[in-house]
Specification:
Elements lengths: L1 H28 L6 H9 L2 H5 L5 H33 L3 H7 L23 H9 L3 H6 L20
Helix pairs in contact: 1-4
């Protein structure tokens, strides 16, 4: 989970940074006489434009790279926020679905199984359990080793 959340963070950051640099260059690379809707459609989906011959192959690959960065950057950021929220609550996806009284599968549960276990020890303790003691440095420098406070197999219960 540690390396996955770091990967999501760095992918979102890299895609958003690439979008910031690529979009103005894509505007100058594509023809100036195009209307704004043509330019936006070409950057977001360049396939029809190369099929009808409006852009060259180099423009197609650049627009494809830009469109992937524009689409994947916010998507990775939303996934990062979703998983970070689960880390801060110390829940798995199944526990989050059960706590919302939604059945994630077609398996029938007993009544005592629908009550989620409370592992929430506070956001800082939850973050240190999953990400390690130096969690902020881990986001900035992903090569740092992770020193967790638990063994990853057993987790402390909340007192509340």
């Amino acid at each position: 989970m540690v390396y996955f959340i770091r990967l999501l963070f760095h992918l979102a950051f890299a895609c958003c940074l690439a979008s910031i640099f690529n979009v103005p260059y894509a505007f100058h690379l594509i023809y100036y006489d195009w209307s704004p809707w043509q330019w936006i459609f070409c950057v977001l989906n360049p396939v029809p434009f190369i099929l009808i011959g409006w852009i060259s192959i180099s423009q197609f690959f650049f627009c494809l790279m830009t469109s992937l960065c524009v689409i994947l950057g916010p998507t990775m950021f939303i996934l990062f926020l979703y998983h970070l929220r689960q880390i801060l609550r110390n829940q798995t996806s199944v526990e989050a679905l059960i706590s919302k009284a939604q059945n994630p599968t077609q398996i029938l549960y007993e009544e005592h199984d629908l009550k989620p276990l409370n592992y929430d020890c506070g956001w800082r303790a939850n973050l240190e359990q999953v990400m390690g003691k130096r969690w902020l440095l881990g986001f900035l420098f992903p090569c740092l080793p992770v020193m967790r406070s638990t063994d990853g197999l057993s987790f402390p219960f909340s007192d509340a």
